[in-house]
Amino acid sequence: MNLARQLYRLQELDLEIESDEQALKRVTSQIGESKAVLKTKDRLQSEQQRLEELKHQQHSAEWEIDDITTKIATAEESLFSGRIKNPKELASLQQEVEMFKARRDRLEEKALGVIDQVEQAEASVAKINNELETMTVEWQLQQKQLAEEKTRLKAALADLKEKWQQLSEQVEPDTVEFYQELRKGKGTAVARVEQGICRGCRISLPTTDLQRVRGNNLVQCSSCGRILFLA
Q1: The model's pTM
Q2: Residue 42: Cβ within 10 Å count
Q3: What is the CATH number of the domain that holds 154?
Q4: Alpha helices (runs of H) in the chain, residue ranges in sequence order
Q5: pLDDT digits (tens, 9 = 90+) for 191-215
């Protein structure tokens, strides 16, 4: 393998390494907690808290209704027992019973409204929970695939770097250093020659340069300075 071909192969390996390193960085950045899952968890927690508060309101209203119902029953029992003979006391007790009943009616209306809200909140919690379960399954599958891709990329990178090292050892260190500096400045250090044209700058090469390239010499393009490689 002539020198230009070796450097061109080094460049191909470098490009593959760069591509896989970028892919590895991208995959690694996607591994971890999902913002969408965390946001849905927060929504679920908020809705569950709201549901608990509504249930507490419902129970409080029901307890108060039960208490007033007991008071009404006690008052009506006294009212109709015949034990109270004083008309004023009877009238006062009757008024108290009516007040209790009016209050119970208001509480029952309020309790019905709270029950509706509880049912809506329960439906909302169930819906968000289903969303979370679906998202979690998808996220876990994605994380598994990302972990597998990360492992594959790391293995591929190790193999590419080993090949690069083995090939670079076949070239003089000064030449490898020159290639690396050239690549650092231009992005690509070696350009193919096709139909007498440097594919790095797309300019036709002088005849003398073409002859030198065909003679397996290490030649730089007189226009862009890249090393010329004739396949």
Answers
A1: 0.70
A2: 10
A3: 1.10.287.1490
A4: 3-30, 35-80, 87-168, 173-186, 207-214
A5: 999 999 999 999 999 999 999 998 8
Q: What order of strands is seen across the sheet that includes strand 190-194?
A: 203-204, 197-198, 190-194, 227-229
For residues 82-92, give the mean pLDDT.
83
69-84 tens-digit pLDDT: 999 999 888 878 878 7
**Same domain membership, residue 11 and residue 46:** no
Measured CA to CA, the distance from residue 189 to residue 113 in angstroms comes to 76
Q: Which domain holds residue 207?
A: 1-28+172-231
Scan for tokens 């119902």, then name that residue: 69
Are 128 and 231 in a shared domain? Answer: no
**For the purposes of burial, counting CB atoms within 10 Å of the CB of 62, is it exposed (0-12), middle (13-18) or buried (19 or more)?**
middle
With beta carbons less than 8 A apart as the criterion, state whether 171 and 7 touch: yes
Residue 93 and residue 91: Cα distance in Å, rounded?
Answer: 5
Q: In residues, how long is the chain?
A: 231
Phi, psi for 191 (deg, rounded to 5) = -120, 135
Q: Three-class SS of residue 223?
A: coil
